[in-house]
Every structure is written in structure tokens, then in C-alpha cells.
Design brief:
This protein has 169 residues and is an alpha+beta fold. The chain has 2 domains: 55 residues; 104 residues, CarD-like, C-terminal domain (Methane Monooxygenase Hydroxylase, Chain G, domain 1), CATH 1.20.58.1290. 46% of the residues lie in helices and 17% in strands. A hairpin with a 3-residue loop joins strand 1 and strand 2. The longest helix has 22 residues. The termini are far apart.
Length: 169
């Protein structure tokens, strides 16, 4: 069970702060079921009510600084994955995004970033579906890493790029 003020990753909502834990807000007679009152960190003004015993939506603690730094240190070792068949490729992207697994998100970002560069070199247009999945994976990963590393979300990509370049030298 998460505690008040804890930062968690909540499926469909991204990084959220646990504002409170309350009785069932829908059925006031149901005193058995508790709910988290969640406030999406990067979506001001919205509130999410999620059952504490939920097993359908991913909810996990966000990574801490050490875990974020370890992930960045290991980025060069995370393999890209390319599935030639478009439906299978899209299914892989959706699954990675649905699980909110940071390594899988890095894998998508690396794969799509390199694919974008290859297509541009070949004089081809970048596929809008690739761009959409790239942006979604970046949004999820960068928002979590921003909080773990205590840096602005817009600086996370630069932080990662600098760390990867330092490691390559």
C-alpha cells in the first residue's frame, strides 16, 4: 500500500502524488474498500480515484535517484528492437507503454529515434505513428526521471544525452 504524499506511476495518468486514502467515494456503504486519491503531477487540476486493491491498472512507486542513474548508465546496453510487420511492432509499443516499464520505454525511444534518423537520411518521411509512440514513451520516461533526478522534465533528454556521450568517451 502506498502512503500519503508518495509519488507513484499510475497507468493512464502518469506520475501521481497520493493525496489521501479514503473510504469508497462511490458507494458510501462499502466501508471495506479503500481508494487512493491521486493528483497527477504534470496535469494540474485533476484528481483520480483508484481502488487500493486495484489489479487492472499499473501502479508502482516511481524510481529513486539511484535507480534513475543506474538506468541512464545502462542505456547503451539496452538493445533496440525492430519488428518488420507494422501491427506486431505497434503491439509491442502499446504493451511497453501499458506496462510503464522504464527499460522498455528506453528501448522504444532508442529504436524510434534511430529509425527516425535512418528515414531522414534516406529522404523518407517519418511515420506519424512512430512519432506518436516516441512522444508517449518520452513523456512517461522523462516525467518519472525528472522527479527521480530532481531536474525539470524538459532537461531530462539533455541529461541522458550528456551521460551517454560521457560514457562513450
Amino acid at each position: 500500500m502506498f502512503k500519503k504524499n508518495e509519488l507513484i506511476m499510475c497507468g493512464g495518468h502518469g506520475v501521481c502524488r497520493v493525496v489521501n486514502i479514503i473510504d469508497n467515494p462511490i458507494d458510501r456503504m462499502d466501508k471495506e474498500r479503500k481508494y487512493y486519491v491521486l493528483e497527477p503531477v504534470f496535469e494540474k487540476g485533476s484528481t483520480v480515484y483508484m481502488p487500493v486493491d486495484n489489479d487492472k491498472v499499473v501502479m508502482r512507486r516511481i524510481m529513486n535517484r539511484a535507480e534513475a542513474e543506474e538506468l541512464v548508465d545502462g542505456i547503451t546496453g539496452i538493445e533496440t528492437v525492430w519488428i518488420q510487420e507494422e501491427k506486431g511492432r505497434e503491439q509491442m509499443y502499446k504493451e511497453a507503454i501499458r506496462t510503464y516499464d522504464c527499460r522498455s520505454l528506453v528501448q522504444i525511444i532508442k529504436t524510434l529515434y534511430l529509425r527516425r534518423q535512418d528515414r531522414i537520411k534516406e529522404g523518407k518521411k517519418v511515420l506519424s505513428s512512430d512519432e506518436q509512440y516516441l512522444r508517449k514513451a518520452e513523456e512517461l520516461l522523462y516525467s518519472e526521471m525528472s522527479l527521480a533526478l530532481s531536474i525539470p522534465k524538459e532537461d531530462v533528454e539533455q541529461y541522458i544525452t550528456a551521460a551517454v556521450h560521457r560514457k562513450e568517451k
